[in-house]
Design brief:
five-stranded antiparallel β-sheet, Yope Regulator, Chain: A, Arp2/3 complex 34 kDa subunit, about 35% helix, four-stranded antiparallel β-sheet, about 325 residues, alpha+beta, 2 domains, 11 strands
């Protein structure tokens, strides 16, 4: 793996920090602040953290998934209630699919596990699909219909009994197996893999399909959680580094442009700072001037003299 590669976490860091701050203040008896945060994950999943009915003693965490109805076919409601229990709101917040409510007056002293689960809310929603088909594979059930999750407008995830496949519009993907224990990864451009030949999968030069062939050693209960973590974060991981590569290219081109301008005697940053300077008569300005002086060895050096003048005098000098 490249040293520049950054591994993303399946936990939402903002949720972790926000809840940690609220829980610690509540247990310490500190003054509770009102909460009203709207934020999104890298893949566009929307969250809202607030005080229901303006009650500062309660924290509501809501999530919106555009593909929630498709997840309902695979038992997402049962999976969430199993994972979060009494913290699941009977009725979710309007315009959101799932809401969790935490009463700050009843927070346990050891709340790390509570926050850990809350930060994995999106991951646990997707887990309902993967766990269902992992169970099919473990039992050897054949002939099950594949799951089709329209993750985004131009991205679709297919989960079948043998492999998990995701489709997305991509420009270029190069992969290499770095570990013999990792699942086989197959990339096809323009045409869907054989598992999707008889489906309505899109066919186009700009469509790429990434297939993960998961073996029993990847889906057994001992390694199942780690596999779900990696599959749930794959899309964000891929897009993150594609966008990061574009930023690096832009910075590289901009650096070359600056070097070219400096070689021909232009100083774009210095000129921009000079032209964009805001002068105020009420402020003073420090200027520097240099005089030539002789040291004890007879060599010359530049001696700096600093004076303070007003902005009006500075403009008159210009």
């Amino acid at each position: 793996m490249s040293k520049a590669t950054i591994m993303l976490d399946s936990n939402n860091k903002f949720i972790t920090e926000a809840l940690s701050n609220q829980f610690s203040n509540a247990l310490a008896g500190n003054r509770l602040e009102s909460v009203n945060f709207h934020f999104k994950d890298f893949d566009g999943v929307a969250y809202h953290m607030s005080n229901p009915n303006d009650d500062k003693n309660k924290i509501m965490l809501s999530i919106y998934l555009s593909y929630y109805e498709e997840l309902q076919e695979h038992g997402i409601n049962e999976r969430i209630r199993q994972e979060y229990g009494i913290y699941v709101a009977e009725k979710p917040e309007p315009q959101y699919n799932i809401s969790l409510i935490y009463d700050l007056t009843e927070i346990p002293q050891k709340y790390d596990d509570l926050i850990f689960k809350a930060a994995r809310l999106k991951r646990n929603c997707l887990a309902s699909v993967f766990e269902k088909y992992f169970e099919f594979q473990e039992r050897g059930d054949a002939g099950q219909n594949r799951a089709v999750i329209h993750y985004r407008e131009d991205e679709t995830m297919y989960a079948g009994r043998i492999s998990e496949c995701s489709a997305s519009i991509k420009q270029e993907i190069h992969g290499k197996r770095a570990s013999q224990t990792a699942p086989q990864v197959i990339f096809s451009l323009g045409e869907p893999p054989l598992e999707l030949k008889n489906s309505n999968a899109r066919i186009s030069e700009g469509i790429g399909y990434v297939t993960f062939v998961l073996l029993p050693k990847h889906t057994c209960k001992a390694s199942r959680d780690n596999t779900i973590d990696l599959l749930s974060i794959f899309r964000s991981y891929l897009h993150y580094h594609i966008k990061g590569t574009k930023v690096i290219k832009v910075c590289y081109c901009f650096t070359n442009l600056l070097l070219l301008l400096l070689r021909i005697g232009l100083h774009p940053i210095e000129n921009a700072l000079q032209n964009g300077r805001i002068l105020k008569n009420t402020e003073s300005r420090k200027t520097e001037s240099y005089t030539r002086a002789e040291d004890y060895n007879g060599s010359y050096f530049r001696k700096r003299r600093i004076t303070w003048i007003s902005n009006s005098e500075y403009r008159n000098r210009g």
